[in-house]
Design a protein that fits this description.
about 290 residues, alpha+beta, Jelly Rolls, 5-stranded mixed beta sheet, 11 strands, globular, binds 2-oxoglutaric acid
């Protein structure tokens, strides 16, 4: 049931070939296009902040979870803390800087803008994200949006990287059921499926695709591609650290929830609504 993501790095920077791959496969797996030192600097910056609230062992860059947290005592405004982590300059250089704009601009074949609102995910052992597609969150203003998931450090299969359900962007019944679904407006409906990735993939006769991600390796996918992350089983207690940021052509309408100096995010609660804003000892919420 498991397959390796097809590496499209060699196709870069051929815009039309990249666009074709994205349409055909529902994703692009791009490796080695980021400056590794910049990725390591971003990782150090995020984990140093988590170390300051007692969640990460020294040296912070290794990302080993302490198993405890003093975040609630030290940073009573959890949303403000998480926003400041998510807007760190070294992190933003990787997630929003000129290099990633150039890469994703090449994929679209036109200038792009990233959503200012950023999802940064430190995932301790045992965590995963269930199967969903991103349309219900990010397609209110335009469907021409992609998610860029980036490994901010080593994320081998054991550490729970992103995984996609092969061919799911062409599951016609799901595409039809999803188009028009807005998770912030239909609050009685979940975007995430109740079953796990294996059960979902099996029910569709599809494979689950992932890979060993190195620092800066990224997966780009469209709004109808079903995905999530594998469980983190790191044998050394290492957290998986990744970012997922949405990019769209600069000329497309912008959803104001995700743009500006103080974006409200999906529900309007700002950075406080994100799983990352919760102390690492507390369970994630599922939408
Ligand atoms: O990294 C994860 O756990 C989930 C990522 C995801 O759902 C996304 O990039 O849209």
């Amino acid at each position: 049931m498991f397959g390796e993501l097809v590496d499209s790095s060699a196709v870069f920077p051929d815009s039309s070939a990249l666009g074709r791959r994205l349409r055909d496969d529902g994703y692009l797996f791009l490796r080695g296009l980021h400056d590794i030192d910049a990725v390591v600097a971003a990782r150090e910056e995020v984990f140093a902040r988590l170390q300051s609230v007692g969640e990460v062992e020294s040296p912070a860059v290794d990302g080993i979870f302490t198993g405890s947290s003093r975040r609630r005592e030290r940073e009573p405004d959890l949303g403000a803390f998480w926003q400041s982590v998510s807007e760190g300059p070294r992190l933003r250089e990787v997630t929003h800087g000129p290099r990633i704009r150039e890469i994703i601009g090449t994929v679209f074949g036109e200038p792009v803008v990233p959503h200012d609102y950023a999802y940064i995910r430190p995932a301790p052992v045992g965590r995963s994200t269930g199967p969903h597609c991103d349309y219900p969150f990010f397609a209110r203003a335009t469907e021409r949006v992609v998610t860029v998931w980036t490994a901010l450090g080593p994320v081998p299969l054991s550490d729970g990287p992103v995984a996609v359900i092969e061919g799911s962007h062409r599951f016609r019944d799901l595409v039809e059921a999803t188009r028009g679904f807005d998770v912030a407006q239909q609050t009685d409906r979940h975007a995430t499926r109740p079953e796990n990735h294996v059960a979902f993939a099996r029910s569709r006769g599809a494979r689950l695709l992932s890979a060993d991600f190195g620092p800066g390796d990224m997966l780009v996918f469209g709004m109808f591609t079903w995905h999530g992350s594998l469980d983190n089983h790191s044998p050394i207690g290492r957290m998986r650290l990744s970012s997922d940021i949405r990019f769209q052509p600069a000329g497309e309408p912008r959803d104001p929830r995700y743009f500006g100096a103080d974006p409200g995010g999906t529900t309007g609660a700002g950075y406080g609504e994100l799983n990352g804003a919760k102390p690492l000892t507390e369970p994630w919420h599922i939408r």
